[in-house]
Amino acid sequence: MLKKILWVLGSVVILFGTFVMYGILTTKQHSPPGLATFTQNDLNIKVDYCRPFKKGRDVFGDLLPYDTYWRTGANEPTIISFGQDVVFGGETVKAGSYRLYTVPGQEMWTVVLNSELEKWGYWEPDPALDVLRVEVPSETYPCCQEQFVIQFPQTEQGTEMVLIWDDVQVKVPITS
C-alpha cells in the first residue's frame, strides 16, 4: 500500500513539474522577446521587452483597462537602459537600467521608470521606487499594429521612444 501511495505521489510531482516547465517554455512563444536599441553620438538606449499579440482583442480599455498598471510588454518586466544621463520626457535620468511601466489612459499615458528590476511576471512595482513619472499624449495609430513594438526613430534633438500596439501610439522624447 505504501508503495502505491509513493508511486501516485511521485507521478503527481512529475506531471506537475512537466506542466510547469511546459508553461515556462511556451510562454515566450505567445509573447516573444524583443530588443529595441538606439545609438547616436553619446546617446545609447536599450529596451529589453516581450512582444504580445493583439489576437483580435480590443487592447486598450478592455484587455488592458485604462488607468491601471501595465508592464509595457509581457512575461518579464520591460527593462530600459541608458548608457549616460538623459532627458526622458523632459526629466533628467541618471545612466543605468530601470523597469519601464505605463499607465494607459484614453488621452494621456503615464510613463514610469522604476528602480525595482528583479521581479518576474505580473507584479505591480513599488511606486516608492519610481525614479520618474511623465505624462504623454496617446495618439491614434493609422493602421492596426498586431504585435506590440517599441521603436526609436531619430529626431533633430535625439530620439523618441515610440510604443505602438493595436491602434494606439505613444511617444516619449529622449535627448542627451
Features:
alpha+beta, nine-stranded antiparallel sheet
Following the backbone from N to C, one meets helices and strands in this order, namely HEEEEEEEEE
Structural class: alpha+beta
Going across the biggest sheet, name each strand in turn.
1-2-3-6-7-8-9-4-5
Distance between the termini: 71 Å
Low-confidence stretches: 22-27
Shape: globular
Tally of extended strands?
9
Largest beta-sheet characterization: 9 strands, antiparallel
Q: What is the overall pLDDT average?
A: 87
Gyration radius (Cα, Å) is: 20 Å
Percent of residues in β-strands = over 45%
State the helicity in percent bands: 10-25%
| Number of contiguous helices | 1
Please sum up the structure shown.
By secondary structure, the chain is α+β, with helices and mostly antiparallel strands. It contains 1 helix and 9 strands.
Layout of helices and strands:
Blueprint: H1 2-30, E1 33-40, E2 43-50, E3 78-82, E4 86-88, E5 91-93, E6 96-103, E7 108-114, E8 130-151, E9 159-175
Antiparallel strand pairs: 1-2, 2-3, 3-6, 4-5, 4-9, 6-7, 7-8, 8-9
Question: If you had to describe this structure to a student in words, what would you say it looks like?
Answer:
- By secondary structure, the chain is α+β, with helices and mostly antiparallel strands.
- It has 1 helix and 9 strands, in the order αβββββββββ.
- It has one helix at about 1-30, and strands at about 35-40, 45-50, 80, 85-90, 90-95, 95-105, 110-115, 130-150, 160-175.
- A hairpin with a 4-residue loop joins strand 6 and strand 7.
